[in-house]
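Here is the promised in-class demo. Please do not try to memorize the tokens; focus on the logic of going from shape to residues.
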């Protein structure tokens, strides 16, 4: 991505994240998301469309000269935006009114536009909608890096709606099981999104350090630090939600599918590495106690983060095994080892986690052999 565009995208993403984590009305934040997406894509119109149960999509936020005409517009499930919102691949076309994939369901108010791109967004495995951008007929089609920006901002829209749903639920409900659900979504969805954003920005900073002005490089570093701090604040909120003493009316969900969590972490790492790590699962991993699963997931995330940021590895293997004694995690790479000048805060944190939970943690690393991270945990505390 061109350095100036990367810096603008970073500044916009930081603003959106800060707004989403504050008490700003979600509708306002969605407007900010689509405004930045349209401006960065040099689009004449940008739309956030939210998916209904029947698959149709409704325009909830818009930016451009026609925004008042399209707010509230409903497109059918068969439309390009509807198909994308249902989990279809990103759609890009030079002319939305003549491309067979898109032309049949273009409403009259949108027929003056040509180049078109749409990306889906969701949270917690649930699809929520699509983010679309349009240019006037005859304009240049959207370039690949522009579509990448659109996809990133679609993810931001999903984060906004996830946070809005969690905030409304916190105000509306006081039952223990609802707090546990909110905590799980914050931990599994929002932290994962911010973690991936931070990793991507860090890679941009390191790959393009020589092309950034000193001030831009410093701002990138500050934004990454802010994302790390935000992740820690969210984790603190999760701990508070899970430790508040309120007697539940019904038993709350106390088990986690650790295999699904591992697949999600490995998938994100693969997107950042440019190749998929090998994942080996064995034993019953679908009923791991939530508190135990959180420790394992944190260890996997930190180990993969170090691989992405520092190792330069061409191969990564993750093994997760459960037996009668507990759960064993191994993350091995063939990279350069953990550099001596790299901060060890994350690794120290995992060592403390393992000790506090009655488990074991170790790291074996060398420039010639790569790195092996081991995290073993019994399934019962104490």
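The designed amino acids, position by position:
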């Amino acid at each position: 991505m061109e350095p100036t565009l990367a810096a603008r995208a970073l500044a916009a993403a930081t603003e959106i994240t800060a707004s989403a984590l504050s008490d700003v009305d979600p509708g306002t934040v969605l407007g900010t998301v689509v405004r930045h997406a349209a401006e960065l894509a040099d689009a004449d119109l940008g739309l956030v469309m939210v998916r209904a149960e029947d698959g149709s999509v409704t325009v909830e936020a818009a930016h451009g000269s026609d925004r008042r005409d399209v707010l509230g517009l409903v497109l059918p499930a068969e439309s390009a935006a509807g198909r994308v919102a249902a989990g279809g691949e990103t759609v890009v076309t030079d002319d939305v009114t003549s491309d067979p994939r898109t032309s049949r369901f273009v409403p009259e108010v949108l027929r003056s536009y040509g180049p078109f791109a749409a990306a889906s967004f969701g949270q917690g495995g649930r699809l929520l909608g699509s983010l679309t951008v349009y240019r006037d007929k005859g304009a240049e089609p959207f370039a690949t890096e522009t579509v990448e920006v659109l996809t990133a901002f679609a993810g931001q829209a999903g984060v906004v709606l996830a946070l809005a749903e969690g905030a409304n639920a916190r105000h509306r409900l006081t039952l223990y099981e609802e707090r546990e659900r909110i905590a799980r979504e914050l931990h599994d969805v929002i932290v994962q999104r911010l973690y991936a954003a931070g990793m991507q920005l860090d890679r941009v900073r390191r790959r393009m350090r020589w092309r950034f002005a000193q001030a831009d490089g410093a701002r990138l570093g500050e934004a990454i630090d802010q994302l790390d701090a935000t992740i820690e604040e969210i984790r603190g909120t999760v701990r508070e939600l899970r430790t508040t003493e309120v007697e539940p009316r019904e038993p709350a969900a106390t088990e986690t599918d650790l295999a699904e969590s591992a697949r999600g972490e490995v998938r994100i790492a693969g997107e950042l590495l440019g190749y998929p790590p090998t994942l080996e699962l064995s034993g019953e991993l679908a009923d791991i106690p939530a508190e135990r699963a959180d420790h394992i997931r944190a260890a996997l995330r930190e180990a993969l983060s170090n691989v992405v940021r520092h190792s330069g590895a061409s191969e990564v293997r993750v093994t997760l095994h459960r037996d009668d004694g507990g759960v064993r995690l191994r993350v091995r790479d063939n990279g350069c080892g953990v550099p001596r000048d790299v901060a060890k805060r994350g690794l120290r944190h995992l060592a403390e986690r393992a000790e506090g939970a009655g488990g074991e943690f170790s790291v074996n690393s060398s420039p010639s052999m790569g790195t092996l991270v081991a995290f073993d945990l019994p399934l019962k505390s104490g």
